Structure formats: structure tokens, C-alpha cells
Batch of 4 targets.
Target 1
Amino acid sequence: MKLFQIQKRIFDIVIGFALLIVSLLIIIPVSILIVVEDGFPIIFKQIRVGKNRELFYIYKLRSMKKKGNSSSNVKISSGWSDSVPDNFVFKSTGDVNPNITQVGKFIRKMSIDELPQFINVVLGNMSLVGPRPEIQEIANFYDENQLKRLNVKPGITGWAQINGRSDMTHKEKIDFDLFYVENQSFKLDLLIFFKTLSVVFTGRGSK
């Protein structure tokens, strides 16, 4: 496992930095469009829950008007008690928020707003591969089994992303993520990484 962690970190730094540099070809012109439409700031940061429940800021290109930005765009049911319901399906209110900019609509649709997360990978609070970083308001309701997905670094892509769909239930997401946690290896990381590239370049899948 120690060898795997070393391999994983080297892969994250080398490939993550390379992808960050390449993504600047998209980030820079999009940043100019963001400023032209709604001024600064260009980057939006939001608190997410990482490995071992450590909080960190995730970086995205700003897609909401400055007056419409908030720390969270997810509605949590007041009926939750000691766990996140198995049938819960995440729906960000930001997707239909009237404060989303015209540029924001485009970059969300194309997942361009996610590109700054390569910064998180290089910094070390995210990995290229792992469960997607959870929103704090949801993670606060995790039960003991659900918390196991936080035993590894969150990732830009993961087992759930290459096997699931955008409307998967929370139980389905947890099952996929726990499979990764229990079977993580450098070989599995490479499989997920290259399958993700295949999805991106063929235009299949959704955000």
C-alpha cells in the first residue's frame, strides 16, 4: 500500500501539472469572457470534505453572478437524521439558478468550470482518481458505512463516474466508491483515468 501511495502521488503531480498547463489554453480565454460579462473574481472556491473528513477549498471557474454566489447550492432535507437516505439524488440548485451567467451555462454544460481542480491535485488535497469530493452539508449526515468513502483522497474522476450516471442514487454512489476504497491499486487508477479520457474525447457521459 505504501508503494501504491507513492506511485499515486507521483502520478498526480506529473500528470496533474501537465493537464493543468494544457487546460490553461481553455481557462485563459474563458476567464476573459467571465471578466467581460461579470467582472472579477474568476475563480470560485467552495468548502468540500476530503480524506479523513479534512475540509479544503475546491476551485472552479465562476459560473454564477457575484451577487448569486453562495458557499453551497444544494438543498438538504430537514427530515434527515442519522444518515444520508439511500434514495437521495443530488440536484444542485445552481443548475437552474437565475443568477447563473451566460458564460456559466456554457462552461457547466462542457464541465470547463471543473478544470481548476487540477490545482487541487497538484496541491495534494485531491487526486486525479478517487471518490468525488463531498459537500459538507451532505457529509455531515454520513453514517459509519458512508464515512468509509472518506478514507481516501477525493478525485476528479472515479469508479462511480465511469460506471454510473448523473442521476444515480446516493446508495449507488456509495457502493461504487466503497468498491474503489476496498480495491484501490495503481492498475485500477490507470483503468479509471484512461476510461475517463475515452469518455471525454468521445463525448459520452455527463457531468
Note: The mean pLDDT is 89.
Target 2
Amino acid sequence: MLKMIYCCDEHVDLAIDIVVDEYETFPQLTKLEEDKKLSTTCEYCQNNAIYVVANG
């Protein structure tokens, strides 16, 4: 099952830790494209998301 966490710069470490703890795998860190940054919010604070952290 693919887990994707959208997060801001402040919460990227938390998102990485969650993926590592839950899936015991190295997470993929991807920077959002400019057009998606405007409509996507951080899952932890509702600021604009900058990254997607995924487990695969």
C-alpha cells in the first residue's frame, strides 16, 4: 500500500520519521511541482505543502 504524506518544509522530518517507523523502508522525498504547491496543504499544519514523502 502506497503511503503519501504532503508536508511543508517545517514538517518534512516528521513525515520521513513516520514512513520509516510504519513501513521500515527508506522514504522517497519528492518536491511538489509549482502548480500543485498552491492547492496542496501540509497534513500537519495546513501551510502550503512543499514535499511529498512516500514509502515507495
Note: DSSP finds two helices and three strands in the chain.
Target 3
Amino acid sequence: MMISEKSKKIIENYIMAYNSFDIERMVKLLHKEIMFRNFTNGEMNTEIRGIQEFKELAEKSSKIFSSRRQTVIDYNAIEDKAEVQIEYEAILAVDLPNGLNSGDKIQLKGKSIFGLNEGKISLIEDYS
């Protein structure tokens, strides 16, 4: 199955908004029942539902980085979802409890799964 150009455009607009810390624009692309999950090393460490919770999380996490950039490497269609391979690069604005410090650069490869419903993003799962 192919990912439609329309779906790709929505995902790319979301990633552009994410990269430029434009939370209002991110939220405009979301379905009101948005489900967001984050997985690190195979374990889910975040799960939220709904625009309000998403907005609060996005505002919190935007304060952690002085810059951040997701670059799309590849798209795959899986059933009715889009799996997006991503390279991620960010510079911390704060010291983190895991020993990373403000000014440190984070680089990783990961993937995000996007589900779309009614022309809006209804599911985001980030894996790193």
C-alpha cells in the first residue's frame, strides 16, 4: 500500500512545525482524539490522549531543547498507518537527570508511526 501525497504533506507539515517549535501549528494538524506514545528501548514511557494533554507535553518538551530537527529518511505504509524513518538531532537547553547537560548534542535514528483520521493526525508513536 502507498502513502497518499495528502498524508505525506500532513506529516511533513507536522514535522516542520515540530522543528520550528510551532506548537499552535502542530496542534492544528491533530485530531481531537490524538493518541501519542513514546517508546525508548522497547518500553513505553509516555502515553497521552487528547489535544490539551498533547499541548501541555509539547510545551514542556520544547523548553528542554534550544534546537531540534527531525529529518525524514523514508516512508513505509503499514496497514492504514505511515511508518516514517527519522534522523533526530537536538541541542539541550537544560541539564537532564540522565547526565546530559545544557549545550550537549543528541543524535539518534528512530521511527515514528503516524495514523491519520478525517485528514488529521490521530496517532503518533515515537520509537528511539
Note: The chain has a mean pLDDT of 95.
Target 4
Amino acid sequence: MFKQIHKDSLYYGFPVTLLATQSIDGTDNISPISSSWTLNNHVVLGVSLEGQAYQNMLTMKEATINIADSKIWSNIERIARTTGKITY
């Protein structure tokens, strides 16, 4: 069930948001981020400029934001260190 809401701002209070992006080569990236909130019709994301998610958003111009349920926090912790940018 979905419910559309209209607020000036929204802080949902969960510690983790999952940011899904795609690289130019088609590979997927899921990055746990700890800060995001809404201001009017904008979403503010706390994304590292050094991370792969930021690079993907610059090149592909798309991202999917998922609010993680607290029941899956251990799964998110497991992937947290594997979502960064690979440098050569």
C-alpha cells in the first residue's frame, strides 16, 4: 500500500538509506548511506564524493532510494565495505 504525502520537510529517522545506482558498464551498485532527508520536493543525500555512487550519479543521472527496514541492518553492515569505488 502506498500513501502519497505532501510535507515541507521529512526526516524519517531511520539510520540507513540504500542508494542504488548503475555504472556506465551496466554493473549495479548499492551504497548504504547514513544521511538523507527531504526538503519540499527535493531529497538531500549524504554521499561521499569519493564513492562509486557519486560517480554513477554524475554519469548516469539516476538513482533509486530505499529506506531500509531495521530488521535487515546486519545484511547492510555486511555489504557496507564492498560498495566503494575501485581505483587503479
Note: Helices lie at 52-60, 73-79.
